[in-house]
């Protein structure tokens, strides 16, 4: 009987010991998870995201993430087609919100999307998904916001401060050379029409008008500043051309307009005051694109 009682005590001690170790193990697991994630305040409320994401799918804002050396495993087709990002995107899969199976196969731990992206609920079941509304933030604030999401706010903020300083200095030098009243228009050639842009439609417009403080022609200001872009025909091309023209030129398109008298007789063309940029490289406003275009503008205006 005594031996049976001792055996019972031993079993009870073992059970209590086992129960006592279960709770700390659970607490340890929770603590470990908390140390690996944080709550990002998105447009739609807090989202738990990894502090050091290892497999990012960027359905939008890919260039912003690339500028912060994000570990991207999936990218949208438009970013993938941009010549500026070819080297960084080598081996990265092209994905879309319509191909959920492909996204699942890539096993992401973070998905960056747009508020208009389809299947957001399903994407959020695959991995932490954060959506941004295009145009809600200005181009520099957007970079800082991506920095917050990737836990690289310091790097993003430092780049913004440096860029603003460099662009402002370039703007001062350019105005000194061309005059405070000189105008600059950003024009892009289409298949049968032209586009002129306001101050927030990529193609370097943010640099020229916001960061550098250069002037746009009055007609451009009237028709494109608020709308962002205005479409017009070849015949009225001179009316939208400033003292200087930044020509967004698609090397894969028909650029025969440059052989017409309408184009050749524009004062900016006759005075050799046209700066060409590659349309395919100029449709974003991320740090990689901005630094690339800033260099072109410095060379084009200042001859550096």
TrEMBL record:
Cross-referenced CDD domains, in alphabetical order?
A: FeuA
InterPro entries referenced in this protein's UniProt entry, alphabetically:
ABC_transptr_periplasmic_BD (IPR002491), Bact_iron-sidero_bind (IPR051313)
Keyword Signal present in the record's keywords: the answer is yes
Q: What PROSITE patterns does its record include?
A: FE_B12_PBP (PS50983), PROKAR_LIPOPROTEIN (PS51257)
Q: Which domain of life is it from?
A: Bacteria
Q: Which residues form the Fe/B12 periplasmic-binding domain?
A: 55-304
For this record, the Gene Ontology CC terms, alphabetical, are: outer membrane-bounded periplasmic space
What keywords sit in the KW lines? Signal, Transport
Q: Where in the cell is it found?
A: Cell envelope
Any single GO BP term:
iron coordination entity transport
Q: Which Pfam families match?
A: Peripla_BP_2
Entry keyword annotation includes Cell membrane: no
Q: Signal peptide span per the entry?
A: 1-18
Q: Which family does it belong to?
A: Belongs to the bacterial solute-binding protein 8 family.
The name under which this protein is listed is Iron complex transport system substrate-binding protein
What species was this sequence derived from? Answer: Planococcus koreensis
